[in-house]
Amino acid sequence: MAPFDDFFQVDPLRAYHRVILAKDFVDKLATSNWPLAQRSAFCYMQDDNEKPCTTSHEFFQEFWRFVGVPAFTKSENIKGLRFDVSGVEAWRERFPASKFPVIALRGPPAPFPVPQMQWPIQQYLQWSPKIYTPAKSHIESLFRNEPYLGIHLRNGEDWTKACALLDEDGRHGLTNLMASSQCIGEHPAQPVTKEQCFPSKAHVINTVEETVKEYGLKNVYIATDSDSYISEFRGRMPAVNFVHLNPTVPQIDLCILGESDIFIGNCVSSFSSFVRRQREVNGKATLYFGMPIATDNAHNEL
């Protein structure tokens, strides 16, 4: 676990909303603004017989201990409340700020995947120097500031199991799987395909070859937590510089992919969808494996 500002800058967020780092709040304001007697943990409970929020979910407790809150005095059930703007008044009525100055939830109060209408908010989420500086250093040293293609591959055992959902009885014709709305839309006419979720090695290599030829690229950055196919890529395209860093901090991969001239992502992956949003607010093109390669917008960017 790491502080928010290890990854992102705080000041750009202030152009969108009032913000304060959790640790700063706990260290400087919590004693007077959030007394121990008012420290409630909030969670969804089906009925009153369930375990209270304060004793369940180790990750919840781990997070709050990390920011300096070792314990909560009671639980509050949020059953029946919505997390979109239509639910604001209901929250205020049930949990007025005068009695509940902090809403301490077990997870982020946001839909998954991020709705497309909220993508523009990504512009306020900017990388911290701890991420951006090493990422730019890699780009300069590996590609000598030449254009490069970034690709994200998901092909590990966990992803094999996730995409196998498309083969299960009752799931044929599934139109929404994890972050698939980034490439087929939020109300698609066609279902998610296996090739969009887990493209074959042959498809990936062919797509990359077509793309580097189409745009005259000589550099490719590969981000993956499993098989990079780098030997196969180099065997097929010996004149192209293929790089797979596998940094210990995956946010560096995200940053490098976001900075690439062209990006090919995985349609279903939330990792790819973060890159898509980052590129969208910066006017950069995004393509997907398992989808037709639309060249017009990408060519305009190059």
Give the tags:
single chain, alpha/beta, 302 residues, 13 helices, 10% strand
Give the terminus-to-terminus CA distance. Answer: 38 Å
Poorly predicted runs of 5 or more residues: none
Overall geometric form: globular
Helix content bin: 25-40%
Overall pLDDT: 89
Q: Helix/strand-derived class?
A: alpha/beta
Give a written overview of the molecule.
The chain has helices spanning 22-28, 30-33, 58-66, 88-94, 129-143, 157-163, 181-184, 194-197, 201-215, 230-236, 250-259, 270-280, 296-301, and strands spanning 40-43, 74-77, 104-105, 149-153, 219-224, 241-243, 262-265, 286-288. The strands form 2 sheets. Strands 6-5-4-7-8 form a 5-stranded parallel sheet, sandwiched between helices. It is 35% helix and 10% strand. The model has no long low-confidence stretch (mean pLDDT 89). It contains 13 helices and 8 strands. It has 302 residues and is α/β, with parallel strands linked by helices.
